[in-house]
């Protein structure tokens, strides 16, 4: 019964579809788990219990009426609080949007509804997706389920923590510089950044428009593929979305056949600054892939050394413009309006109080980088570096089918450890940022533990070749599971550190 | 290029963010560190490198000129901090329209 | 507060004005620029908005194909080059009427650029160079609540975003030099020309009073012989063609007074007041830093050569070409034709001719009787409540003898009052000329009987005296008689 929490989304969908268990039962089990473990994990900003159960009942009714169900119908999902769902509060982890209820659905929200996926609630995140630890949330810090004193990653730490604490079998995130992949890496879960434009951004609150990519999060590669299939594809409401069919991500995940694939190790994404345990797990994962028939090659992408710098110019510039709309005039927080203060003053006061430190930092940097006289040196130059990075990727993909690296240089750091050192915090994104700048796709798959904390393995593929991520990810997952006798998270559940998670599992 | 608290204050004004004195003094050095780190992009960004503003090279994405439904006014005003006569009520505006 | 104004002619003797005109054209597309909300004037506040034009978090723009088409056609009609590839850009600034606190516009890559138009003022041609025409979106509308309803002493403001997201094309001239004292008239003629052009293209209603055509007028003065432009002011709130002329006339006088007195013109934005003066704006002196960058939510617009050629073929006969053609066809003297153009009656007369009247008849009605009415009403000819077709009908009624010129004026009264078509007004008011011969004859007899001495003079050969009898008959018949016929009858009676 509580085995429902340990089941994969794919298994749950099968059980629900066969009528062996109701979506309501599954949903209730997860709501119970949320109640049991949230005091330790703090993954959710908003739990929509009644609405979730109503959605579950609707799926059960469909099943009873003999109507066909989609491949994820009735399965619960935790949604990063950056997606608009009509009638559900959306804060983006910020005080400036506290209490805002969108009057419309994101395209992805609509697709989930059509697919019968049950939304459990909204998960915590770094404010407006800015951060690598979820410590920048305006509300509270989420704890890594593996070790509650550690960060769950960011900006999508809530979604990753929800998966790793078995509060949900599926989750949604957005990845702008690594915000899906890095949390996946430090929580031992799977996170995918699809090809930019492969998933609709309509209804997803914008951080950096040319980099933001909504993506699927799960505990297994197949589950992520199934979710990718549901949410992906062209959207006429998003001018930057790609009008082409999705590659067969589910087929690739089921196959996992990588014999003959060339796997390129990126020289620049390793070495100094990378924790030894991370590099060891990475090397072992390469061996695992070789056992499955892949060929390992070395590639060099020299411009990757400039990726972090380019990112921290382009992203804040777009952020400074995207966040301007939070001006206290039409929605959100309004502070300082005593009937005589001016609109300009109310804007100043509201934004001063409503935004957190990191958000302010990035808005100021972005304002500077775009300002008259500085554009060419900063934003303009950064956009050129983007071209160089793309060229390096193109050259590398000529010699390798996928590129690989550790997802992030370290395992989960301690809460509070890097809050006062922005640059140290930014370095968590070293490996993930290049793919955002180039717009291609990437996945993080668990590849082991170092000092008891999860390590993530990143696979990168060319734009529109998302299926390769799942092929390689599935191969690695299977090969490692064979060695471990189960998944990485099974190891958490089996250990004293994970005892609290069994609370509702029993 | 060292940023003074005065520079930061000017940028904050442009961004309509009221920063406290503590924030101003704390931010200036932090921003300096970041700006130093990112200034390197100018070195590699030579004149012959074209810029990329979009990862995937799409052009001419249009929609047909057909009118569709709008949101109901109540839904639009539901989130307003203040409303009057079906309009958003905002404090007195100092600047002129552009 | 009295502002010193230089004598205009004196100003023109000492200075050369340089003009810059920015005209915004609101397109008449069915939907808005970046969303499918209906593009309609008016309506309940905030009833024509959606997440996109409201700039709600998560919303994204999608470009209206028709707006691009219209922008290209406008560019072609202005003899511009059309960019083979261009992008939208964000113009970042905070203002409550801007839902995103940035405007999606175009910056250094306008869709059309380097064009020109030729206009005429009192027969003198002027070539106006066009810097660019670009696409952008409109902001919402604010109502300022306070003592005067003006922004300066408002306690608060109310925002309606129905207009937010409406497609606009902004047309910017290069500096216009060499106009001398005609500068205000040139500006007015240029905007009138643009208006006619937009109407011909069918891309906008271009009604200045409704805001679908807006003009910001820039002017600076250069001392005669100087090589550098002076500092310019930009005047907003010029809501009619007359205002453009008046505002520039005023600004020239104001700037000349400043400069002649050894002072400096402040580079600033000013506000035109219909009472006849401008006042400075309230914004800071430092120029706003808009931090333009390419709009990342939109992809480049790259019209193909084929598409541009297709659109070029859809262009109607452009106004200046039409002018030359009609001038040749109608055969008026140059000054007469110039009068027609200056009165804004060209299209009206053309339509009247198309409806069956002769060019001279068309000119007669539009430039005399109707022009007088327009003047009295303080409106443009095109705004009178009578159509060219109706004017043609009127002329036909005169030509076939149903009414005469004098009665026609009363018919015009009726049509302008909304009583119906000319024929309907004639019937309803009973204005038809008396055609019944016996009735006429009876009236003639009565007139002769009433003035026997006049009748006697006529009988004895003093035919000139017939006027008094004709007058008497016309008076009795309230003008509803053909004077020539009455004369005939009187003379026949008395011979």
Strand content of chain C: 15-25%
Largest interface comes to: A-B, 73 and 54 residues
Structural domain count of chain A: 1
The best one-word shape of chain C is elongated
Q: How many strands appear in the DSSP assignment of chain C?
A: 15
The span between the termini of chain A is 9 Å
CATH architecture of chain A: Alpha-Beta Complex
Strand order of the largest sheet of chain A: 1-3-2-4-6-5-10-11-9-7-8
Quickly give the structural class of chain C.
Answer: alpha+beta
What percentage of residues of chain C falls in helices of 4 or more residues? 25-40%
The residue ranges of chain C in which pLDDT falls below 50 over 5 or more consecutive positions are none
Largest sheet of chain C: 9 strands, mixed
Which properties best describe this structure?
heterotrimer, B: 98 residues, C: 495 residues, alpha+beta, Arc Repressor Mutant, subunit A, 3 domains, 3-stranded antiparallel beta sheet
How would you describe what is shown here?
The complex is a heterotrimer of chains A (506), B (98) and C (495). Chain A has 506 residues and is of the alpha/beta class. Chain A has a single domain (11-305, 384-503), classed as Amidase signature (AS) domain (Amidase signature (AS) enzymes), CATH 3.90.1300.10. Chain A is built from 18 helices and eleven strands. Chain A has helices at 3-6, 9-17, 23-41, 49-64, 107-115, 157-164, 181-187, 221-231, 249-255, 276-291, 307-322, 343-354, 357-370, 376-399, 422-426, 433-438, 466-484, 488-493, and strands at 44-47, 76-80, 118-123, 170-175, 190-193, 213-218, 262-266, 295-299, 402-406, 441-450, 453-461. In chain A, α11 (307-322) crosses α14. Chain A is globular, with a radius of gyration of 21 Å. The N and C termini of chain A lie close together (9 Å). The model of chain A has no long low-confidence stretch (mean pLDDT 96). With 98 residues, chain B is mainly alpha-helical. Chain B has a domain at 5-43. Chain B contains four helices and three strands, in the order αααβαββ. In chain B, β2 and β3 (87-91) form a beta hairpin. In chain B, α1 packs across α2. In chain C, the strands form three sheets. Chain C has a nine-stranded mixed beta sheet. Chain C has a three-stranded antiparallel beta sheet with strand order 5-4-15, with no helix packed on it. Chains in contact: A-B, A-C, B-C. β3 of chain B pairs antiparallel with β9 (154-160) of chain C, so a sheet runs across the interface.
